[in-house]
Amino acid sequence: MDEVDRKMLFYLFRDGRMSQRRIASLLGLTPPTVLYRLKKIMDEDILQGFTLFINPNFYNNYFSFVAFKNYYDMSKDWIFLKFKCIEWLNVYGIRGRTVNEIEDRISLMTKTLGEPAMVYKPNQQPIVPKLIDIKIINQLIKDPRKNSGDVARDTGINSKVVIKRLRLLKKRGYFVTFPRVNIPKSGIVMFSIFSKKVKEVGKILENCKVIEISDNEAGINICLVGSMDEAKDYVKISRNIDKDADVMIIYDYEINTPYIDLEKESF
């Protein structure tokens, strides 16, 4: 891994559907060179593929984030996101059909994992997804980097409509295509900042931020940088804005994306 490889990963974290041609243009390389480098870091088990993150609000669910000391671990189909942090914490994203169901699930986790170190429940408005959007998103669950032309072909939806819907869903924060990266092997530093001033902090983090999940007041920013010193600088500036911000260094992450069965699911 060199600086060029790290920049490639950064671009893919920002947009996991970015084309090799676009990456080549940003880096001043040829597309074959980018292809060679991507294959190399895949062969080295640094880049392990791609996955689709779906905001639970898209399929009419609520969600919360909760952190526990990582003496124990837990995996459930309703845990849609997990960050493993060096601060002896695991951060879980949990989903449920109702706020009460989320409370029940936090209580269930507490019985196994102990008392939570942090709970964050954003203000949110789940939606009933449109059938056309479900069909499109299900194609990306199968192949997160599938191009819009192939999605159109396999769904029978006009390609211009597919492009329009994908842009709209992404803009509204309903999905993100994420690379699956072995963080320790990559040499990059991933960290999260939970803040009650997420928009102000987010402006400071604009150059390193790869994803933001918020209700426009409080939320989480996930960032990538090239060194721990660089991470410390961002944290210091962020805490000048919000001294109570929670910072965690992430060494591994898991994303659990449910396939939406149109015959069984009811919204």
UniProtKB/TrEMBL annotation:
Highest taxon above the source species: Archaea
Record domain HTH asnC-type: where: 1-60
Keywords: DNA-binding, Transcription, Transcription regulation
Entries under PROSITE patterns matching the protein: HTH_ASNC_2
GO molecular function: sequence-specific DNA binding
Protein's name in the database: AsnC family transcriptional regulator
